[in-house]
Specification:
Blueprint: H1 3-18, E1 20-25, H2 30-35, E2 38-40, H3 42-51, E3 56-60, H4 63-72, E4 77-79, H5 95-104, E5 109-113, H6 118-122, E6 126-128, H7 133-139, E7 145-148, H8 151-161, E8 166-167, H9 173-176, H10 180-189, E9 194-197, H11 203-206, E10 211-212, H12 215-224, E11 229-233, H13 239-245, E12 250-252, H14 268-277, H15 286-301
Parallel strand pairs: 1-2, 1-3, 3-4, 5-6, 5-7, 7-8, 9-10, 9-11, 11-12
Helix pairs in contact: 1-14, 3-4, 4-15, 7-8
The structure holds 1,3-dihydroxyacetonephosphate and iron/sulfur cluster.
Iron/sulfur cluster binds at residues 62, 87-89, 115, 172, 174, 200, 235, 260, 262-263.
């Protein structure tokens, strides 16, 4: 039996005896996706965390996602197998930054992308994900809307809703470095390929897209299209399931380095260790949790 097989067997046994569920984001390593009970985008994972009967959630993703699980299911133990798995986009805005912005725009409604800390969510009126940002902004009736922290998603939502937003200047380093030139080059090399992109990409990249979608939306688009070749403007971890679910289709990524190093910090060893010692836990302080919950619940209840 290989080392990985041994780890997978031990994880399965411990998962059962601990009454745990393993949730994994679509960017996780393939072996983590393989052992997960559910893989999905931020919205899907939040929904699973809210619905599960398990006692323990092993969250294979980044810190803000585990926090969202804890906000929705505080009675469960939420484990993040590597506490260093953060999100540089979420780190672009602090509570103080958001309070300052609110002071400048006292009448504005604040919509915060789920890629933000629980403390920032607690200062927000609504939360949204890449999967429902357009719907949430459409649903909010306000003269002024602050949108934080992703500027590319914010600008995309502006274009889709026709609403002017006050946008925080954060971005995801993985998606923001995908260039228009890289995509145009691939399009030239594969003239029949369609291009599907995550809304964290820059505007000039999204302008080339046949479809803009969350990570789960990308899987749906690929499943449904009759095209045999698809250029994917997102993180390379997507390739595992794309190829598994669509063996006859071919996929191209704009560059070798569209990899989120934080997502790759979660390994089989760390998952096993976290189940053994029930650490590291993610626990949002109750006072923060209750305020963040309002914003997250509004998100979960909208499409
Ligand atoms: P999704 O919610 O679309 O999975 O995106 C999360 C993320 O971190 C993208 O970089
Ligand atoms: Fe954060 Fe970007 Fe990694 Fe997503 S891909 S977790 S936004 S750094």
């Amino acid at each position: 039996m290989s080392r990985d097989d041994q780890l997978i067997k031990s994880i399965a046994e411990l998962k059962k005896s601990r009454e745990a569920i393993i949730l994994a984001h679509n960017y996780q390593r393939s072996e983590i996706q393989e052992i997960a009970d559910f893989t999905g985008d931020s919205l899907g994972l939040a929904r699973q965390a809210a619905a599960t009967q398990a006692r323990i959630i092993v969250f294979c993703g980044v810190h803000f996602m585990a926090e969202t699980a804890n906000i929705l299911s505080p009675e469960k133990i939420t484990l993040l197998p590597d506490p260093e798995a953060g999100c540089p986009l979420a780190d672009t805005i602090t509570v103080e930054d958001l309070r300052d912005l609110r002071k400048k725009h006292p009448r504005a409604v604040v919509i915060t992308y789920v890629n933000s800390s629980a403390a920032v969510k607690a200062e927000s009126d609504y939360c949204c994900t890449s999967g429902n940002a357009v719907q949430v902004v459409k649903a909010v009736e306000a003269e002024e809307i602050i949108f934080a922290p992703d500027r590319n998603l914010g600008k995309y939502v502006e274009r889709m809703t026709g609403k002017k937003l006050i946008i925080w200047e954060g971005c995801c380093p993985v998606h923001d470095r995908i260039t228009r030139e890289q995509v145009e080059k691939l399009k030239k090399e594969h003239p029949h390929a369609l291009f599907v992109a995550h809304p964290e990409c820059r505007q000039e990249v999204l302008e080339l897209a046949d479809k803009v979608a969350s990570t789960t939306g990308i899987y749906e688009f690929v499943r449904e299209t009759s095209a045999g070749e698809i250029i994917v403007g997102s993180e390379r971890g997507m390739l595992y399931r794309l190829e598994k679910e669509n063996p006859a289709k071919r996929f191209y990524f704009p560059s070798e380095d569209t990899i989120c190093p934080n997502m790759k910090l979660i390994t089989l060893e760390k998952v096993l260790r976290s189940l053994e010692i029930l650490e590291p836990r993610v626990e949002v302080p109750e006072e923060v949790r209750l305020r963040a919950l309002k914003a997250v619940e509004r998100m979960v209840s909208i499409g």
